[in-house]
Design goal:
With about 110 residues, the protein is mainly alpha-helical. About 65% of the residues lie in helices and about 0% in strands. The protein is globular and about 30 Å long.
């Protein structure tokens, strides 16, 4: 029973990620090389072959990601989103990545 409660709590926290993000923090993750690379590597490690781990978003990565989404009863989408990244890596990774992207945005460009 405790295991079911813990699973439900994690699922609820993951669902709330998209709801709690400030709109300025939501970016097209398909253009974030390091995020795409990590997703490709994770998918490959789990048996969802993205046909290469190069950090470049393309149709093979999307196909592998949507196979993962179908297998995990998630909605298919055309790109990366925080909810699938939370499902792949955990909520703490998403929080860290959001903070990282926010600090990058605050840095002055030279």
């Amino acid at each position: 029973m405790l295991c079911v409660a813990a699973t439900l709590a994690v699922a609820a926290e993951r669902r709330s990620i998209d709801e709690t993000l400030d709109q300025s923090q939501i970016r097209d993750l398909s253009f974030q090389h390091n995020v795409v690379y990590a997703v490709q590597q994770k998918l490959a490690d789990m048996g969802y072959d993205p046909k290469g781990v190069d950090g470049v978003w393309g149709p093979n990565t999307l196909s592998a990601l949507n196979r993962y989404r179908r297998d995990n009863e998630m909605r298919e989408r055309r790109g990366l989103d925080w909810s699938v990244i939370a499902h792949l890596f955990g909520v703490d990774y998403v929080r860290w990545k959001i903070d990282d992207l926010a600090s990058d945005a605050e840095q002055p460009r030279v």
